[in-house]
UniProtKB/TrEMBL annotation:
Domain of life: Bacteria
Record domain Major facilitator superfamily (MFS) profile: where: 14-455
Region (Disordered): 525-564
Record InterPro entries: MFS, MFS_dom, MFS_trans_sf
PROSITE patterns linked to this entry: MFS
Entry GO CC: plasma membrane
Species for this entry: Humibacillus xanthopallidus
Gene3D superfamilies given in the database record: MFS general substrate transporter like domains
Entry membrane topology: Multi-pass membrane protein
Residues passing through the membrane, by range: 47-68, 80-99, 105-127, 139-161, 167-186, 198-218, 238-258, 279-306, 318-335, 347-366, 372-389
Zinc is among the record's keywords: no
Name of protein: MFS transporter
Amino acid composition bias (Acidic residues), ranges on this chain: 533-552
GO molecular function: transmembrane transporter activity
Amino acid sequence: MASSTPARTGAGIVLALLAAGQFVMTLDSSVMNVSMAVVASDLGTTISGIQTAITLYTLVMATMMITGGKIGSIIGRRRAFGIGLVIYAAGSLTTALAPNLQVLLLGWSVLEGLGASLIMPAIVALVAANFPPERRAAAYGLIAAAGAMAVAAGPLIGGAVTTFFSWRYVFAGEVVIVLVILAFLPKMADVAPIPAKIDYVGSLLSIIGLGSFVYGVLRSSEWGWVIPKPGAPSILGASPTIWLMVLGLLVVFVFMRWESHLVKIGKEPLLRPAMLRNRGLVGGLTMFFSQYMIQAGVFFAVPLFLSVVLQLDALQTGLRILPLSFALLLSAAGVPKVWPQANPRRVVRLGLLSMLAGILVLVGGMDPGANAAVVAVPMLLIGLGLGALSSQLGSVTVSSVPDSEAAEVGGLQNTGTNLGASLGTALVGSVLLSTLTASVVSGVLANPDVPAEVKQKAATPIVGGVPFISDAQLSEALTAAGVTGTEAQAILDVNSAARLDALQEAFGVTALLTVGALFFTGRIPRRAPGSGEGDDGGDDDDDDETVGEVDDSPAGSVDESRPV
């Protein structure tokens, strides 16, 4: 179990700085998503170019997190945090001044991605170094809330700054925030560095394995999961997506075998395989993965409903999502304060149920009369649920290992969240577009007002999928094609109904993912970290352990002799 760390003077300042770091790390992507068209025009590139930058940014972070966590252990968490901040600030400044796509890719995708891979694992470890176990739940909850708030507030901030000033000011502002954090860096406690060497072979294998898998997932909407989309490349008749995912998993398997080999011969691995047999750690990592997969699905579909179906602008969309941020902050800070010795497993389950209730309200609310008010209650319920999970998971994962391993845990944790977010967005997006295509085709064929030539085209399988567009965009396209009057209105009606069907399916899949996550809560401990009691495995809820092999060893115990 993690060693107790004395509370420090200025802990509030330390928490604010770490939360600010987490906020900045998460803000970029959500801002870029709403500013893509303006950024593309400004840099003389295309939307596809900006999407490539977003993909590369995610890829660099996802592949480098484990290595970044190990580097933090070797050079010291605070130093890794500081170096990461300097690299990140250099990337933000480069991005703010970028004259073209190539410079944007260097500044945002590469430098900021590398900086984040040092910063985010270090944040996890610095919380462990600056707060005793009994206060970590609240600290981790607030830091996770800061990240989730950045996702929710990103469209609002990005929309406002891009509309009234320039998207470049967002990145310039990040440089200022980083400089403030660096000024207060000496106030943070550190954990002594652990002399060791980087496992370069393991690092390369982890980068190739995770990179292949994540890249395949990120390209699934463009290439298709198994059957290649029209115009997409193919390998032996199948989409590159499935080949990249299979390759990635195989390389990760080789990586784990290599790490086991290093342990066996007495050398320092990049990741100790025994950590993945730690019950509390695996339970926390599984739930982090699930949380971010569900969260990504919600944040993918809700803005589409608000911005495309209801045609709200970025500011209005951001304001409608903002209640989620307040509920998340309230829950993340309130649960540890009001219920400091709460049963983590129970809090996580209640959080998932709250999220499920909110998502189900969205499923039922996708009808022709739906307006922006339909998201108000779901945003509150989902926010409360996310906050409940945030208040427990960080403390559960770090407290299940010694403080000396907190940075490695941070690397694993952020790898899990990146994988979850990538997979959640890709999965929900695929379901949404495939349902939209099927609904449009069936709606067109069944509507007597649609011209015969349009029905004939619709009868041909649309493998590439129908784009998710607003009534205004479709109306312009129909006018340009010479379709007007009753015929145009019939197609608009079909598209409107199909969009709601697609969103309903997308939210339905997200609800299933949430229910599925409940089956994996059995490894979350029942005793709060720092309560002085271990998870004895003897009382309530023991009949619903995670499906599969049950590890009866206490949380935090590992057995290096067992092979992986």
